[in-house]
Design a protein that fits this description.
By secondary structure, the chain is of the alpha/beta class. The chain folds into 2 domains: 4-125, HUPs (Rossmann fold); 137-270, Rossmann fold, CATH 3.40.50.620. It has 10 helices and 10 strands. Helix 6 links the parallel strand 6 (137-142) and strand 7. Helix 3 packs parallel to helix 5 and helix 8 packs across helix 10.
């Protein structure tokens, strides 16, 4: 599989991102490209020395794969996206606290901008997540939007990689029977896809009473989720329009790693079901 690209800036959040990237890359047998985006006046020598020291410290964790790094200069989101494109990466991993430069619990412009610009799926992780726990449970929320099913392929890839269980969450954002039937149809399609791929799953439906994001996070907490897979373009509701997009809210509020997928990033072999 193609490279796993990971953003790094010496923060604890980005260090956790490297650890998780190594775990994923080992399982995929993919090489890792660590990316440090420097400021114009930063001296490269001490940066390279420290990165090489840290890379040497985790070399024993690499299982037949390579960990390489590159220094880039410019806007962090733009440069990370550019590197992912140049490497034809399979995944971009970013530590949200570290890359945002903001206090804990808030997501800065760089992290969400990275999601917007990235040509590949982005896995965002918070430094306060419990990384000692295996990736056992993945939540996949499904609504009535046309692209909602497309995240299932990437979620299935992680489920196969880690032996995880997928928790399908059908979100009823309307009382309209026809719209609810659309949600049921999409859930059924994803169930069929997971059955065909031998992936364990559960299904639950929720009538959204407040905000789609908070309802999804409450469900994720209930099932002890280790990852939430979302599309960057989600069904719009009044609460989302008032508070920002579903993806923005999820990345801001979730303490659980979030895998973001844009419609055009769907894998060719997992797009149909």
């Amino acid at each position: 599989m193609n490279k796993v690209v990971v953003g790094f800036d010496f923060s604890s959040g980005s260090a956790y991102a490297v650890d998780l990237a190594i775990d994923i890359a080992n399982r995929w047998q993919s090489d890792i490209r660590l990316v440090y985006v420097k400021e114009k006046k930063e001296d490269e020598a001490p940066i390279r020395a420290e990165i090489e020291r840290r890379n040497a410290g985790v070399a024993h964790l690499l299982n037949g794969i390579k960990l390489e790094y590159v220094l880039r200069q410019g806007n962090p989101a733009e440069e990370l996206a550019a590197q992912a494109r140049e490497d034809d990466a399979a995944l971009l991993v970013v530590g949200t606290h570290g890359m945002s430069g903001q206090k804990k619990g808030l997501l800065g412009r760089n992290s969400y901008r990275t999601v917007e610009l990235s040509p590949v799926p982005v896995l965002l992780i918070r430094e306060d997540f419990n990384f000692n726990k295996a990736l056992e449970n993945i939540v996949v929320p499904l609504d009535s939007s046309d692209d909602t099913r497309q995240k299932a392929g990437q979620a299935a890839l992680f489920a196969k990689t880690f032996g995880s269980k997928i928790h399908l969450l059908g979100l009823y954002t309307s009382t309209s029977p026809s719209i609810r039937q659309v949600v049921k149809n999409y859930v059924t399609m994803v169930q069929r896809y997971l059955d065909n791929n031998g992936i364990e799953y559960s299904t639950e439906y929720v009538a959204v009473k407040g905000n789609v994001t908070t309802d999804t996070l409450e469900y994720a907490e209930k099932v002890h989720a280790d990852m939430i897979a979302i599309m960057t373009e989600q069904e719009s509701t009044l609460s989302n329009l008032l508070m920002g997009t579903f993806a923005q809210q999820m990345l801001t509020l979730s303490t659980i790693p979030v895998l973001t997928v844009r419609p055009k990033q769907v894998l060719a072999d997992t797009a149909q079901y």
